[in-house]
Amino acid sequence: MLNAYVFSDGGLKGSPVAEGPIPAETVWLDLISPTEADDTLAEAFAGISVPTREEMGEIEQSSRLYIDGEARYMTASLLCGADTPTPVMLAVTFIVSRGRLITVRYGEPRAFPSVSGRLSKSCPSGITGEIILIDLLEAIVDRAADVLEQIGADVERISKRIFERDQGGENANQRYRAILSHIGRKEGLVSYARESLASLQRLLSFLGTETEGAAVSKDSKASVKSMSRDVSGLSDYAAFIGDKLQFLLDATIGLVSLEQNNIIKIFAVLSVVLMPPTLIASIYGMNFHNMPELDFAYGYPLALCGMVVSGILPYVFFKWRRWL
């Protein structure tokens, strides 16, 4: 799919382009899961080479950030679907050439419909691809901040659940299993967010670099510098959340070990408590003919009382020593 955005009626209006020519006044050309025909159409219009999905997925910096003639190519990995059970990393390419912006993506990052919707209502008549790129990057950074804020709030709730008093009737096994599952999901989300922020930091550094044939305006430089500071701060916050998640993981595993130790301790106490009664029952269960107690009228009730007392005494001793 190929969307062409043209300034009209005080806003940037987008319209899909199927087979017809792309309007010459197009400022922003957005390629969404493009076909070979879409790539050919965009290349003929902008006079550039559109990278393939495989090329966008390469991790070398030289393959993601480079200049080809008058076109500046920038590919960033963005976190998508952070609010869904299956978040993914999506490679998005931004190409600035001759005052136009060409974007290539195979997904729907939230920043794109947000920026296109805002610019369709109002934007300056002299808007350029560079200005649209700055708006997109600012929206992406804001979205990353929102995601990290939500993760931080979720981590705080997980922390309270771990260290709160155990509620009666709640199965400890199910509780710790759910906590470990939540920690695992949040850790994966934080890892994606840190990867995305690192990718954005490299892109912003490249965008703010003066290069012959691909200069950046003074206002854009100021915006890029401000976003770089924001991304650096968000990276530090993401690292803090990652450290806290590791602490919560260690604490949960420690509590699970304590729970297991308590269970083992109960079995150990039961074995000690039942050992004397078992000994007494074993002695008087041998049924030897010459055992003097066999002819004693109160032998059976006395043996039962001895078994009960011998079981109670170790329990009282453990309680006195505060081992239970």
TrEMBL record:
The chain crosses the membrane at residues 266-286, 298-318. It holds the Pfam family CorA. It is a multi-pass membrane protein. Its main location: membrane. Keywords: Membrane, Transmembrane, Transmembrane helix. InterPro entries: CorA_cytoplasmic_dom, CorA_MIT, CorA_TM1_TM2, MgTranspt_CorA/ZnTranspt_ZntB. CDD domains: EcCorA-like_u1 (cd12837). It is found in: Membrane. Gene3D superfamilies: Magnesium transport protein CorA, transmembrane region. PANTHER family: MAGNESIUM TRANSPORT PROTEIN CORA. Belongs to the CorA metal ion transporter (MIT) (TC 1.A.35) family. This is Magnesium transporter CorA family protein. It comes from Xanthobacter oligotrophicus.
